[in-house]
Amino acid sequence: MNTIPPIDLTRHQEPIRAEIEEAMRRVFASGAYIGGAQVNAFEEDFARYIGTEHCVSCNSGTDALVLSLRALGIGVGDEVIVTSFSFIATSEAIVLSGAKPVFVDIAAQSFSLDPEQLVAAITSKTRAILPVHLFGSPAAMTQIMAIAEDYNLYVIEDCAQSTGGQWRGKKLGSMGTAGCFSFFPTKNLGACGDGGAITTNNAQLAAKARALKAHGSYERYRHESTGINSRLDALQAAILQIKLRFLDRWNCQRQDVAAHYRNLLVNYPGIELPASKPEPVWNQYTIRVKQGSESRAKLREKLAEQGVGSMVYYPIPLHLQPTYLQDGYIPPSLPQSELAAQEVLSLPMFPGLTEAEQVQVAKALYAGLTTLGN
Known about the structure:
By secondary structure, this protein is of the alpha/beta class. The chain has helices at about 15-30, 35-50, 60-70, 90-95, 120, 140-150, 205-210, 235-245, 245-265, 295-305, 335-345, 355-370; strands at about 55-60, 80-85, 100-105, 125-130, 155-160, 165, 170, 180, 195-200, 215-220, 220-225, 270, 285-290, 345.
């Protein structure tokens, strides 16, 4: 029986392995392992690809969010509106900046922040909106940007799972005040270790973030503020610069995989398929199991018995995470986020996943659903 993992990081990289290894040898020979020409070259290429004037690399997507918030002067006493259905890093960055996350629900037909609920969440303390392009699917940026403009708010795009994605012809990460990217190995553009970046057209934000990531220093040994150490290694920059050339091809392969899944699964009872418009770049292919978390757990067991790996992103929405359920905090009622947490199930998704393997996934899924009575 063929075993299919939720993600395979080797298949799409194997054809360019020799090129990556040669780039790594050049970095080793250079002796320049932190910063320098290699990092600068990647930043220039990535800014050009996203369509912004500036790119500030850093050591993770989490730091990209923290640095962006701090560079905009967002801190104690401020509020940032954010979706509750995301990885903890999204709200964690707001807390680490000193601000307060204000959670809003996702739209019923998507996994993205519901723009219809934004205005009601805005207060005199609100400084920014932080939409998440979750699973590679874009948030409703036209509405979000219009509301931000009306209320003079910053927009910080969390693009961790959506590198290369677009909204109405514009790259994600180019529309807000800042775009924040993760290069964790499982992302659409993944390094061989940690990495992140900020994209922006705001020169002041870029300069401030660049100083903050280097201990608050604009010039060596002179520190204007308390910063952090958040640098992208030259080795990772070299790898990312090569991979960037193949990103659109890999994203097209992901879209082909998603289209084949839809053809295979469209009539399956008991599940709901993810929306395919506007066209995601499919960091994850996430269905909903309509009978809830207990049935989902049983279904995952049945899939595993057939050699099919799966993942749950995410079983607990942010507003119900234990770290926030203290000091008298009363969580809001966010029914769509809570429902999604009970239903979501991500199937294998990666460039190089074969149609035969997808058929195996589909058969295993059908068999599992049948045992659940669907």
